[in-house]
Every structure is written in C-alpha cells, then in structure tokens.
Amino acid sequence: MIFFILFSMGAGVLAETQDGIIEEDEVTDVQYNEGKSQIQEEEPEEDRQEEELEEDRSEDKTVATQESEEDMTNQSQDQEQENQKSDSENHEENLDRIDDSLLDDSSPLSSEKKLEYNSDTPVFRLDKVTSDSGKTLTALAWMYGGNTYLAVISSKEITEVIYENNKVNINEDTIKRAETKDCKLEVNKNTYGCTDFGDNNNFNDKSRWSVIKIEGQTLISPFKLTIKVKKDKDNETGNDIVEKNVHVDRLLQVYHKYGEILVLDKAQSGLLNNQFGYRVSPQYKNEKDGIDYELVDIEVVYNGEEQTNIGISDLKDGYLEGQVPTIKLKGKGKKDEYDSASAKITFIYKQPDNVDKGSITITNILKDPENKDMDREFDFFICGPQKKIYTVSLKHEESVTLEDLQYGEYTIKEIVPMNFKNKSGNLIEVNINNHSPHISVTIENQRRNSGWFYHEDIVKTQLR
Prior knowledge:
Largest sheet: 6 strands, mixed
Shape: flat
Number of helices: 3
CATH class of the largest domain: Mainly Beta
Strand content: 35-45%
Strand order of the largest sheet: 1-8-11-5-4-3
Number of strands: 33
C-alpha cells in the first residue's frame, strides 16, 4: 500500500513537470530533485509552493541582473567610444599646439591670430616666384608710410630677407607670421587667404602668411629678392628663394626729381589701366621749396628695362601717354600664366637760372675763451645739393657768408679740436627755399681741458 501511494505521487509529479516548458537550467534542477526524491521523503505541498515562488523571484532577479549587466556593458562601450573620440580630438589638438609651440619656442618672432595692415597704394599681385620645393612663394606687395610690405606664403619661419641688396633687420616689427593657414591677411579692410595663391599641392598645415616690412625702401618692379627659412637639417635649401627677380603686376610709379631731391607722386602712381596704359604729367613746382623748376628730361622704365626712345618731345598737351608691352607671369597653378606689365616714370627738373639764389652765414663763437684760444681756427664743412661741399675756417667771433647757393638741404659739420666741445651740435641741418632763402647759423665751442694730450703740445725731433 505504501509503495502504491509513493508510486502514484511520483507519477503525478512527473506528469506535472512534463506539462510545463523546461529550460536548460531547469532540466538540471529537475534531474537533481528527482535524485533527491528517491532517498528522501517528499516535502509538503506548501513548502514546495514557497520554494517555487522563491525560484521565480530568483529568476526575476537573474533576468534583471542580466539586463542591468547588459545596460552597463552598453553604457561602458558607449563611454569608451566617447573617451576614445575625446582622446583622438585631444591628440589632434595637442599636435596642433605642439606645432605652434615649436614655432613659438624656436623663434623670437611672435605669431599672429589676425594680420591687419594699412596701405598708401593699391595692393599689387606679385608673380609666383617660388622656392625649388614650391613651399615658399611671393604673393602680394604694397607701400605704407614710405615702407614696402611683402606678403609671402611659407611652410617654415622666415629667418633672412634681402631686398634689392638691402638686408632686412629681422624682429617682431619687421616680420609678422600668421598662427595657422586659415588666418587671413587684411589690407585696407580687404581680406586675402593664403590658399588663394600658388599651387595647393605644395601646401601643408604649416603653410601660412608672413608679412615682411622693408623700412625706407620703395617698391619697384622687378626687384631682386632673397628669402631664407628655418632649416630642419643641415644643407637644406629647397625652401629658400635666392636672388630671384620678382615682378609687380600693373605697378605704375611716377617720380619728380628736383635737383637731388626725389619725390614720389602718390596721386599719379598706382595701377596701369586695363590695357596696361597710363597718362601722367610733370609737376614743375616743388611743394617743399615752392620754386617753379624747369623740366630737362624724362626717364621711362618698362618691366625693368629703360626706354631710351621716350622723352620730353613725347609730351602732348602737357601729358605723357603710353602703353606698356606685357610679359608672361606665372599664375596660381603650375601651367597658369597671365599678362602683366609695370612702369616707372621719372620727371627730371633743374632749378631755373633766373631764380633768386640763397645764402648761409656761419658765425663761430668761443664761450669763456682763454687768450691762447683767440687765434685758433675751427674748421667747418658744408654739404649741399648735387653733392657740393664747401669748407670754411673761422676764429673766435668770425663769420663767413656762402652766397648764390642753390635751394635745397644743407648740412654743416664741424671737426671739433681736441679739448673743445661743440655746444651747438656737431651736425646742423638747414633748408634754403623760397620761404627762407637766407639763413644764419651760430656755432658755439667751449674749452673743456679733459684730454690726456693737448693740441698745443708740439714735439720736435732732430735727426743726427
């Protein structure tokens, strides 16, 4: 009887289990429980139901835990991707900063976030003169305040500039370099990007504007230029421009030469017209001295070549007109070419013979002179226009007047004797013009007795 009851209960349990859905984990649990049921008494129904509830809660916890782990895994992967992206961006930014820091640390010159300049002239395009590597090239030029400015594109920092055999003093005032290739150049509110010039195949991330200020030099065409840049290794010269002629596109310059005084006519200078022509006129009066001069010659230069067949006889109704023959210059691409021309015209004048001549009166005074100084002579040199030099010697309270002097600038220089001091300045500049034709200058000297030797000490040597 007992055996029959146990057999019936086991069959019922087996039938109930077969009616359910069995997972892999449940199969293991069932086999394990069946093994236990053979050696232990069957647990009460209430306890079994409570265990099933606990198992269900455990399964829910397991599923929740698995979902939570999956969410955490996905979040971790997303975070890792964000971190990798951030690290990559930071790496690129660090590379940029490293490049800039190397540029800043390797040079006393500072880099600029924005390059802004003013100009008295149009901004002229230069023909594309490049280094052998093509990574250094000339682009633009203009003038402001009597100085010439060159805009150059280079991948390396500029270390040396020679313009028309004149070496530029390299410092933060004479060369400004852009921070990046995207930094634009602005001249008179007009902007220029460095990628608009040259062949982009030769550019890299370090290619950027450099603006060179050439103090006291006039822009001419063509001009001889040397640009040397920083070298990464010995004997590296492929990025240098060495003694190459650079042409300025459509440059027109008009000068007036009054004696030795050369004046740039800003009003008539600028650009040749669209047909590379010009129409200019002489200005007979020099505004500086107010004298009406006489025109004696005209010098005309086209594209750097003097035109000896053009002169005063070519003036028509007071104007000189002409058209400049063009030359082929390199453009943006390697095969791109364009027509260009430049002209320099100089009107040459002389002072009329019937104009009033000027004069300079020089007086020498000794302050607190000693008796032995009364007969001492002091020597003066007067340098005037056309490199004329006058020499005078004056004692105490003596004067001399130089007459019939051409109008213009004069310098008076004294050779100060030993143990004397010029209290008026060793170099005096005066200007004789229509407003001040007659000038008087007083020069004061004083004994100071501070030298080791005296001019009065004369040693006579007798030969035996």
